[in-house]
Amino acid sequence: MSFTNTIRWEPLEGGVVNLVLDDPNQSANTMNADFMQSLTATVERLEAEKDQITGVVISSAKKTFFAGGDLNDLKQVTKENVHELTAGTEKLKADLRRLETLGKPVVSIINGAALGGGLEIALATHRRIVVDSPKIQIGLPEVSLGLLPGAGGVVRTVRLLGITNALMQVLLQGQRHRPGKAQEIGLVDELVASPDDLLPAALKWIAENPEAVQPYDVKGYKIPGGTPSTPKLAANLPAFPANLRKQLKGANMPAPKNIMSAAVEGAQVDVDSALKIEGRYFVDLVTGQVAKNMIQAFFFDLQAVNGSRGRDKDRQPWKSEKVVVLGAGMMGAAIAYVCAKAGIEVVLKDVSQEAADRGKGYSEKLVAKGVERGKVTQEKGDALLARITATDDPSKAQDADLVIEAVFEDPKVKAQVFAEIEPFLKPDAVLGSNTSTLPITGLAEGVSRPEDFIGLHFFSPVDKMPLLEIIKGEKTSDDVLSKSLDLAKQIAKTPIVVNDSRGFFTSRVIGTFVNEGIAFLAEGVPPMTIERASSKAGYPAPVLQLTDELNMELMVKIRKATKEALEAEGQEIPHHAAFDVIDKMIEAGRPGRLRGAGFYEYDENGKRTGIWKGLSELFPVQTPEAGIDPVTVPLTDLVERMLFAEAIETVKCLDEGVLETVSDANIGSIFGIGFPAWTGGVLQYINGYTPEGADEATGPAGFVARARELAAKYGERFEPPASLVAKAEAGEVYSDTALAAA
Amino acid sequence: MSTEALVFDAIRTPRGKGKANGSLHATKPVDLVVGLMHETLARNAQLDANNVDDVVLGCVSPIGDQGADIAKTAAIKAGLPNTVAGVQLNRFCASGLEAVNTAAQKVASGLGDDLILAGGVESMSRVPMGSDGGAWAMDPETNFETSFVPQGIGADLIATLEGWTRDDVDAFAVRSQERAAAAEDAGYFKDSVIPVKDLNDQVVLDHDEFIRRGTTAENLGKLKPSFAMMGEMGGFDDVALQKYHWVEKIDHVHHAGNSSGIVDGASLLLIGNETAAERNGLKPKARILATAVSGADPTIMLTAPGPASKKALAKAGLKAEDLDLVEINEAFAAVAMRLIKDLDIDPEITNVNGGAIAMGHPLGATGGMILGTLIDELHRRGKKYGLATLCVGGGMGIATVVEAL
What we know:
The structure holds two protein chains of two kinds. By secondary structure, chain A is α/β, with parallel strands linked by helices. Helix content of chain A is about 45%, strand content about 10%.
């Protein structure tokens, strides 16, 4: 069978062979079919010529050492491919095993990132030498794509580092380590100062270790920290899965469990059996829906939203040099920090010097914390702070090329602050508003250059949340959109682009989830059941807790504004059961955490102390004694009502043209509003919808059927939109290629 | 063909503290059983050992000193005829009662055996609880998928669900201590507790040494909850609450003073049918009317004595109100309180001579011990119907209904 050789054989002096990983068809080396066959051929040749060989050095001709599995391939495999997939991974692992048992020293010299499959290849050699550069990342991040390291990564890290260390430092979180930390953990053996030092260090080690074997292939080797038969480990082992369950909160995340299982089970048997066990858990994940969802979102969709997005590739990216942040409240203060951190000069303006200073105080606090934790040097921190000018003087905005307005959500106030600042700006300055709900087209009427006006919607806390929702008004120019996308890159945010509408995409969709969760209270669902159902769904914060943070007073304000705007158009706001709950809570003087009283009780420091004792009087709970055995009643209806509410609203956003791409929907929902990561995002959730207890996804058709069930049971808001029904009937899924073709 | 299962005798060792300084720690578990075998033969002089068909013993950690079929090992060491077989079984805390029930079913079936020695043994000081590993707790995949939590968390969850406070469970524990001390002082255990002797025939222990006289609610109140740390740091509270999702948090009310004690001990009953009675001239003390095992949610783990008891009562054609006495193993105070609630029985007929909180729970031996206590007390009171039941790992429950003869 013909294939492209991706492993170059280069003889060096003294009988050492240099195997150069260099796939001629790709910019990075991956574990594609060509590599698999190249590896087999290479290992066969090594064995055949073993007597003439004194050692092997594996290096890469690419910028990175090796990129890992081929995600395009992995995305395709289904349960029907289990047999060939198992055979394929076993072949790969057998070849790597032959490499590490060659009887000659094999050294990996690592000149760039070795993540996933790349590190797994290196782990199958006797020594890993890495350039000590902060740009090089070492790790096994498969878990973040819903996978496990299936090329021996679990087996070898467990044997080298011990079960606990391998799980905690490498496998369960998929940490990406710098070389120094990787050496400390034991993932790599030696650091060198520059790429030129790699080969000499490798040759030296080969000369000194002519008969290298893996430590775990030496008779009597004991895994550090022991195995389940070691009493000390055995005493703690039952808590491993329990703590994992505590951490995952019942969400549909099979990868960490499979990783832990493969690690512990593998430690009890020989290497070859351990590799077999690892392979079974890998195949289980890769043929499952969650890995497909996560690969789609965190690889393909993320790549798409961060890509060129219609910008001319030859064009020099725009760079903001001076930004005016209007309003030094919580959002403005944090936006100022993020911009200053990216090297932009920032004018943080508020109505009084005092308020502006208070806003800068936010950055001062973050910098101090960063210095204390060693994340930033004092010098860099000071420079960051020096870039922020807190002021009440609009003239300080002189020559700014960007405005980000973050004042009170009132069109009049917003128009005022823009009018005050506009005269000082550069003539083509980008006029951005961080409004989270007000239509951009309307706000643009308040400025002199509506074509330069754009929505730049940040998420709180701005320094942690990765998303920037960019909203185009009716008149927003392509040039300003391009600049805004460049800005996102400059300040290291992930952009999505949406069209104007009340609440845009994110605020509009998250509202449906929050309302659904709140409405459960009115139905007599116990508060903790609601919280645990939202955690089980995979939301990062339980819904009542989140509502307390979001503040019900603010929610009422937004509802009123929406109501007025709709009434002006002769429409009515559709009633939601959540409104009654919210009104009752406000009446009870419990709007949320800000006032120290919401669904939860808070102490004087604002710390949650427990569910408000009066809640069950306000909303009587249907108890287990009411005839249901709660242990056997699934939370599925609660879980799916929240997820479906958001998915259906998203389809409406597509229908109305608020959304232009599927990738924007998926990434926006995960990064901006906490839609569960395992779903791959709010439209991928429909694509991969899998009914409770089903083995395989039923996709849009299954989603439609279930939506109708929910509509019959809980209300017409779950009725699937016509476009979705059509998609289901046509057997299609949501994808950007399909949208582009339409 | 025989259809009856009769109890001819029921004896036990005293319970020694399950620690290195416990009186029975220097005695091998096999010898605890051998001593009871010799005593059974001695006090039933008319019994021909050649007529014993089998030995069925419960043991929860059958490894090391207790491994390799301790039932047959003990039979050989006791000098029983070679024809006497032996089998060890494990149904966690129900092992001892399961051994009795199995023996009862064997002799009542008429298919083979007529006379069996049944009971159990556990030297918790020598083979600690959990030392046999097992997939449920130790295999991450099994543990994760089945929501495993240690029993203590389940016991605390029962109390939380029922609204029983620390004071409630402590009050139950104080009663157990008072009743056990009173029963011992009155000599109620004398005929059935057989002193353990060493190879020089010296008495090692002749009474239950775990009882703490003078226990008060006040001094129990000073004890720290046993499972709070494990529930929090070990993640087990969260595991349980993902199932019991309406509960805000688990109130950790159990501690060493209101849970069963860790002790060493053994029990042995002589079980047979009418054929065996006639052939050996044995006089039955009780008839076993029904046996049952059942199960409930494995995570809360300890709520199935109720279902098992109801199942056994139905089989016996009895109602809970027909019972004269009930023995529920006091694994944890809340377990016993929950059974009293589930069967709606009078606490005054339940564990009248104390229970495992006062005297200890030698895992595999306990079922045989409480059944013996039950039969003795029915006789002493001149009463008829009794029920013995235990909560069991894995969410199981076991029950045996007897009629005193």
